[in-house]
């Protein structure tokens, strides 16, 4: 990476990692609800700035919107579960638009099969965890996002895997409402899986867009 690019753009990735890491360790501290909300949104929020600055194309702007809506969802979840879910629902729709604009030309049958499994299995498993129709509807968009990511031209083992991590993080949240209600596992894994998923998506998409300039 050229020195100028390193100075201008990589700090946003480092800032995102730093904010997400600090939030994970201080989220239970009595430092004030407002500060925790802002810190929580900063991790993916910095990824939105990274995407906006690294690629000025329509796809780059769309990726920045995806990240910004997720960051908004992070903060709104601390205030209202429904409003936070709505922001993430919008993020999934924006992500699907991005991935559909960048479809893979000749996907293998195994890729198609996994995409169908994600589209159907994500809302089904979410409903089995919660028995909540609203969450199942949200998870339909979540599964659609992951399926479209897997079928896109972006690298599957970065963007596709990042989308799978997003699905897993939400499944852990939903499992906390049911079979894992008394387990500490979701609390330990939800945030790392969620942020890592977004980090992989942001860097994977930008890498591909810049390579094809």
TrEMBL record:
Membrane topology: Multi-pass membrane protein
Entry's Gene Ontology cellular component terms: membrane
Top-rank taxon: Bacteria
Keyword Membrane among UniProt keywords: yes
Organism field: Pelagerythrobacter aerophilus
Keywords: Membrane, Transmembrane, Transmembrane helix
Location(s), subcellular: Membrane
A Pfam family of this chain: YhhN
Transmembrane segment boundaries: 12-29, 35-53, 83-100, 112-129, 135-152, 159-177, 189-209
Protein name: Lysoplasmalogenase
Stated family: Belongs to the TMEM86 family.
């Amino acid at each position: 990476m050229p020195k100028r690019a390193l100075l201008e753009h990589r700090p946003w990735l480092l800032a995102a990692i730093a904010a997400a890491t600090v939030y994970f360790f201080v989220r239970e501290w009595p430092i004030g609800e407002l500060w925790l909300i802002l810190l929580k949104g900063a991790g993916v929020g910095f990824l939105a700035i990274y995407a906006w600055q690294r690629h000025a194309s329509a796809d780059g702007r769309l990726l920045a919107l995806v990240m910004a809506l997720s960051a908004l969802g992070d903060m709104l979840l601390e205030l209202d579960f429904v409003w936070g879910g709505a922001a993430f629902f919008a993020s999934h729709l924006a992500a699907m638009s991005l991935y559909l604009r960048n479809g893979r030309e000749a996907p293998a049958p195994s890729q198609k099969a996994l995409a169908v499994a994600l589209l159907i299995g994500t809302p089904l498993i979410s409903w089995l965890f919660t028995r909540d129709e609203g969450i199942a509807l949200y998870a339909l968009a979540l599964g659609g996002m992951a399926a479209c990511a897997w079928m896109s031209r972006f690298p599957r083992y970065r963007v596709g895997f990042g989308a799978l991590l997003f699905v897993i993080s939400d499944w852990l949240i939903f499992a906390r409402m049911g079979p894992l209600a008394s387990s500490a596992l979701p609390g330990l894994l939800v945030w790392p899986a969620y942020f890592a998923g977004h980090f992989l998506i942001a860097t994977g998409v930008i890498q591909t867009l810049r390579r094809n300039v």
